[in-house]
Write the structure tokens for this entry.
Amino acid sequence: MRVTLLGTGDTTGTPTVGCDCGTCREARRRGVERTRFSVHVENERTGETLLIDASPDFRQQFLREEASLPDAAVITHVHFDHLDGLGNVFRVLDSLDVYAANETDPATGESVAETVASDYHYLDQITVHPVTPLESIRICGFDVTLLPVDHPPMVCYGLVVSDPETGSKLSLTGDTSYAIPEPSREALAGADLLLADAIVPASVCAGHPAGGRHENSAGTPRTFGTKHMTREGALELADELGATRTRLVHLAHYYPAEDAFEEPLAVDGEVYEL
Ligand SMILES: [Zn+2]
Ligand SMILES: [Zn+2]
Ligand SMILES: [Zn+2]
């Protein structure tokens, strides 16, 4: 399994347009980017490619990495930064199987699968396959399981991608607070590579209207606002899940410049062989 981090940023990316903060300046100086979230997973046994989330930066990401085009995609949730790149398949792919959860979201009255199907009803290339969370299905020769996480008010899913032949395992938290349900935690545990949402350091919670929550015993918030883990929360989760390697992703430019490019914060273009 070859994993390429196509997009490691939050919804505005780094550098953010129109921003001249120290972190965006430092990113420009280093020549690195954190575009909107997407992960490219290649099955070297079958020659197939699975795309996790369709970033609005799809075109730029595939050109930059010279990445193989996807045979299938999984959409974790219907926020702009994970879904709105799907229109890029027009005149680029003949067909794309898109997998998404089948549970009705009380916030929208639709499942993720239904929203994807209705948003892209005009694209004949896209076939949407509704998936039951916590049940493994075979995609691109991998066993893939969608796992409910906590990203209020929307439903959102983390996932596990494992290779039934080699046993290698990739876990993604998806966009989530620290309050990931226990069955999902159990499924995410023991990965060769964990990609964990860590949008900001906990120190930034003071500036959020909702503050932070899910404090640890030292009083440090493990959730920023209500929707995302802090760096501290993501690192605690990684400890608990016992991944061999962890990369923090979905990162905002609100990290202070001196922290923003420290380990284990990811930048676009990282490649892992599992
Ligand atoms: Zn900035
Ligand atoms: Zn989101
Ligand atoms: Zn997001």
Summary: Helices lie at 22-30, 58-65, 80-83, 112-119, 182-188, 231-241. The mean pLDDT is 98.
